[in-house]
Amino acid sequence: MTQYKKAFFLFAFAGFLFTSCGIKTQDKTETAISSEGNRTKYNFNPDWKFIKENPENAQDLNFDDASWSTISCPHTFNDIDTFDDLSLGHHDGEKNQWRGTVWYRKHFKLEKEDAAKKTYIEFESVRQIADVYVNGNYVGQNQTGFIPFGFDITPYLKFGSEENVIAVKVNNDRNSDNFRDNDPLVWNHEHWHPTHGGIYRNVFLHTMNPVHITLPLYDNLKTVGTYIFAENITAENADVTINAEVQNEHKIAKQITFEAQIIDREGKVVAVSSATKKIEAGEKHTFTTSSSVQNPNRWYTRNPYMYKVLTILKDVNKVLDSYETPLGIRSFDFNVDSGFHNNGEYAKLHGWGQKPTNAWAGLGAALPDWLRDYTYQLMDEAGGNFIRWGHSAGSPAEIAMGDKYGFVTLMPGVSGESQDDGETWRIRIAAFRDMIVYYRNHPSIFIWEGGNWAETAAHYKEILEVINTYDPNGKRLMGNRRADVKNDSEGYVSIEIGTEGWEREYPDLPIVESEYMRDEAPRRIWDKFSPDDNFWSHKNLDKNTYTIGSEEFAVRQADQWWNKMGKKPYHSGGANWIFSDGTHGGRNPTEVTRASGEVDAVRLPKEAFFALKAMWRPEAQIHVIGHWNYKEGTKKDMYVISNTAKVKLYVNGKLLGTDAEPENGYVYKFKNVEWKSGEIKVEGFIDDILVVSQTKKTVGVPVSIKSTSITGSKGWLADGSDIALIDFEVVDKEGNRCPLDAARVDFTISGPAIWRGGYNSGKPNTTNNLYLDTEVGINRVAIRSLLKAGNVTITASRKGLTSASITLTSLPFALKNGLTTQLPQVYIDGFVAEEPMPIYTPIMPPYEVGIKNRSELFTKFSYTGNGKAMLRTNMHWGKKAHTDLEYNYTVIPRYLNEAEYVRTPNSDNRYWARDQLQFIAGVDMDIYILHDDTVKRPEFLLEKYKDTGDNIDVGGVTMSIFNRVAKAGESIIMAGNSDGDAPKDCRMYTVMAKKR
């Protein structure tokens, strides 16, 4: 477990623009002086009125909302209709969610003194379309769904005893069930993100002096805030440039002194710079100063040291305004030959993709910040140091967590999976600009993702223009996932954001993987030797793309990591897809989630979590996959994951085997281990020295229920939206969790709280109920606070077991006139302690780059299925048809002789993705697809190809031959074998091509 130290940690967010003025610089080592100025940041989350309807005139100041519900943000109106339906399969997301128009209204008062200030409202984002009104006045709209935005509401406000009302009309609808037909908001579809609507992230109100440092909210405000960057970074020195956009909204000019303090983690000022400028009435001016930080503490993924920059505005000696900006001093290199280096130190990147909705069963996408921090803490515990936000931007809290935990971040704006035009592109490129302005000061962001699909040359030029305008000194790379589908990408992307990582397609570019390991397995299933929990016997099992338990899922982690990127010295690393189970495109209709996470939808770890921890943590790690509660006579292969060089396995003290030759770098396999009641123990050795061990015991019969609670760092707050988690587990008489327990537990709750419950992964309609099954002996529920503080008691019971009661106290939350300065809390205060270098790295076999999948015809070839596809030349009879079957082509038409061809994996015969196989035609060519007609012909085949009327027999299966002509440079994209259900024993299509 990562260790934490208590320390001050508070960072704002920032922005940019250039100009110069007189500069003086001095180094300091004194304690920082807090300088609040006249700026106040209010937490605007608590105490809103809400209605899930679209009444007329709801924006009016005097509209009667007394009958509406009282809620607090973050809030979604889809928390009760998600994680409650079995997946549809075929990579379709959960569709059965309420969509439409709703209203929020918030009543508040401002002090008379605030009438002399400027007031801005900031939404960290609203899904999907937000129309904002202040006291009946329309102030604007935002429809990005993921990017922060704000408004100047000063002209519309009342002060003193008069009440103000902010009304927000929110819509989360989309055009059709077909994700391709959802213009302009192509990313607002459950295929990419669950359509959880609402004010699902934080809201803040800012009041400040008319002379102030602007907010980094470009949309509507056209302001960029601060922009801070470090250059000439060495162990001895770093030059830091501070830009701050200042606006004078007084009616007279002001002589302003600007001061910037760089403050270290201990609160010491390490450098100060200042400048003075007369700013005319109504003028915007950007101060630019520089400082040198001597012997800087640099930001590493394993030691993410953070400074802050306090920028202050003074009129003579009176402080008018101050603003904090995060600063991490780091250099980096994504090297085409040797991978990623951070401040000159090699680091393999390993982590996850994560959806920015970050959905949680029972809560939807509306999470308090401490739960986002909790998720990051789990990723850090498992050894992660890399995150790719899936298609759209993560939240401000999560990007700050990337800084805090040391996660190299791949950051997009908003995107579906297409090259867009017209209104969609206009919204996307504006969102990309707004995202960069808001987040550019965060050291954890190393790569800007231009989109989730290749763009035209014109669009790439716009993307680069935005980066060069708003982040000209960030030195960050830019790439698009699937840039290899267009030749236009050449010359614009500076890093290959690969897909499934088998081979690089840009030999001159570094590579980082954005999505790998898409397999799915629920946490509740161990293996076929353990009791079934509604999986192996499920009526939908034959419709599943994946029919594996959590143990096999854990073992596969090492296979995909090691072979796709881990063993390749040139490969920077990649993102496992995805960290937490969600409702976005599951391929298993036995589940209510896409069960591809290392934790489930309430963040309870699977065996895969511990497997990756045993691979990725720098300290010595070992984990035996599975439990030790079997029936007499059970013999099974036991797998151990360890980052050591040798492993020994014992049963009841008897040594059963020693393995010093792991598979896939980390996997130690012990065959036919016979179960004996007692314990199984594994030991890990480096240089024949015992460095780590683990023991699992046979657990007794269930006796009682045990409950524990989890809250944020400041406890459970009565702010109307805070969450407390309660874990309930069934234990034996010694308090050990019973790993095979899977049965109903009933709950009662009393006190000021709302029951949010949890879910069962393989049953529909289990959310929000006052009962829930344990899964492998444990499950987790949530309760939400009200605005009233008090004691809440939850009792968990099951007939035959001793019940468990737990009492939580929600703490009073200061709220006056609808406002509070108590900001959202995190899970753990402080910073992450420095980690050691990896204790051991498996021996990497010699690896020759790029000698496989290369072809004159199939250029920029990639395959995104689970198995591995191979390019081959000189087709004739006797050639192997698939990479994982021994069947050969026998009698073939003469026109296919000497063709180049693709061996696809037959294991992907029921796997669907819209971009499963892709290449660019290197020459004018004929393409032939051999398709098993027991499978429904996929859309791409019907649209682009003609049936030749010829057939080939491959291993007793008749494959129809389809043909099309492709011109040199044309992008060819093939989806999965079928858009619908395919027979269990069907054959995957194969592809051939001949130069014309």
Automatic annotation (TrEMBL):
Gene3D superfamilies: Galactose-binding domain-like, Glycosidases, Immunoglobulins. InterPro entries: Beta-gal/glucu_dom_sf, DUF4982, Galactose-bd-like_sf, GH, GH2_Domain-Containing, Glyco_hydro2_dom5, Glyco_hydro_2_cat, Glyco_hydro_2_N. Residues 339-473 form the Glycoside hydrolase family 2 catalytic domain. Keywords: Glycosidase, Hydrolase. Residues 236-330 form the Glycoside hydrolase family 2 immunoglobulin-like beta-sandwich domain. Residues 633-688 form the DUF4982 domain. Residues 64-207 form the Glycosyl hydrolases family 2 sugar binding domain. GO terms for biological process: carbohydrate metabolic process. Pfam families: DUF4982, Glyco_hydro2_C5, Glyco_hydro_2, Glyco_hydro_2_C, Glyco_hydro_2_N. PROSITE patterns: PROKAR_LIPOPROTEIN (PS51257). One of its GO terms (molecular function) is hydrolase activity, hydrolyzing O-glycosyl compounds. Residues 715-807 form the Glycoside hydrolase family domain. It comes from the Bacteria. Signal peptide: none annotated. Belongs to the glycosyl hydrolase 2 family. This is Beta-galactosidase.
